[in-house]
Amino acid sequence: EGVFTYDPGFMATSSCQSAITYIDGAKGVLLHRGYPIDQLAKHSNYVELCYLLLNGERPSKEEYQTFERTIRNHTMVHEQLANFYKGFRRDAHPMSILCGVVGGLAAFYHDHLDITREEDRQISAIRLIAKMPTLAAMCYKYNIGQPFNYPRNDMSYAENFLYMMFSNPCEEYQINPVFAKAMDRIFMLHADHEQNASTSTVRLAGSTGANPFACISAGIAALWGPAHGGANEAVLNMLDEIGDDSEENIQRFIDKAKDKDDPFRLMGFGHRVYRNFDPRAKVMKETCDEVLGQLGLADDPQLRIAKRLEEIALEDEYFVKRKLYPNVDFYSGIILKAIGIPTNMFTVIFAMSRTIGWISHWHEMISGDYKIGRPRQLYIGHPQRDYPTE
Ligand code: CMC
Questions:
Q1: Whose CA is closest to 368, among 76, 121, 38?
Q2: Does residue 227 have its Cβ closer than 6 Å to ligand 1?
Q3: Active-site residues (predicted)?
Q4: I want to staple 139 with a disulfide (CB 3.0 to 4.6 A). Which of 64, 94, 289, 347 is the partner?
């Protein structure tokens, strides 16, 4: 038996080698395959980013067209899946439905599950990227009791998602281009973030040889917690709870967040890796200002509260000393709400967007040499003792 390092929370452990995403937490830098996130957000789009993350290089024009067309060809889901949804309670949290349904995809798409074959891995990746918006929108439609919409392959990735969410057979839904652009931006900003809890979960599950749909379902489960992807939902709930933007009221919540006897934390603040501004939060805040400005909602009360909360926290010694800054989730919820997306769908949208990151990491791992992930422990239980025989 060797000597094992005790590293709870993996504060100092690199679990793998990866060429996908680079983060410099001290400087607030995030690169995907070498490209800075702010440049990607400005000049690229989600589908191109998917190609880049999965394949390592930006696509040529022809490669992009083929990739996009292939995704469009896979947006429909097996008709039988509609019955799977119907087994859930209507008021089930959409994340619980998504966990189950994505895990269940292996039961529908088992024709290409030989993970040792590159072609099969690519097909599963394409299926996931293409079907996640359909599955996510179905969670919402099921919740509100409306019929499911089939995807529209004449629309862009983001437009199609908005269409499936908000269209119904009784009235035409006009896609607002501002919303579609903002949606695409939100997808991009959540696409990958190296070895976070959910990605590590996907890799760990994948290291056993489990199929990619099961692995992504494990990632969705890990993402759901409020310390991870559930934070975007928690931010909006927090802004609701804060309620008004008076100075004393906001200060009261800042004081609660600082109080070690109070479990309340400032949601959307702090990050394990960033000890500086989260570069995604900067782009998200700009997008938030753009979208709400274009909608004439620049003076939205929740946006006012969020901005004042940020200002006060960034000047407060507690947050300064601990290097706590707003993270990607601080402003995303305000944009999603302005688009009309209900709070309980926020983490589902994070999961949809992160699917490309998860599957790229899974693909990178399975394509190279890897071992089953098997951490050790420091045993602190009872030493050996005899079972009493009388
Ligand atoms: N509000 C108040 N205090 C905080 C916060 C916060 N949001 N975040 C960290 N702290 C304090 C914490 O109490 C601790 O103080 P002390 O040193 O006195 O004990 C110190 O800062 C370090 O915190 P930690 O919990 O040890 O740091 P961590 O790296 O383990 O946790 C985190 C990172 C993101 C879980 C945490 O900052 C947090 O809970 N934030 C709120 C939830 C959130 O916004 N999560 C989304 C993360 S970004 C999206 C994603 O990638 O999932």
A1: 121
A2: yes
A3: 271, 329
A4: 94
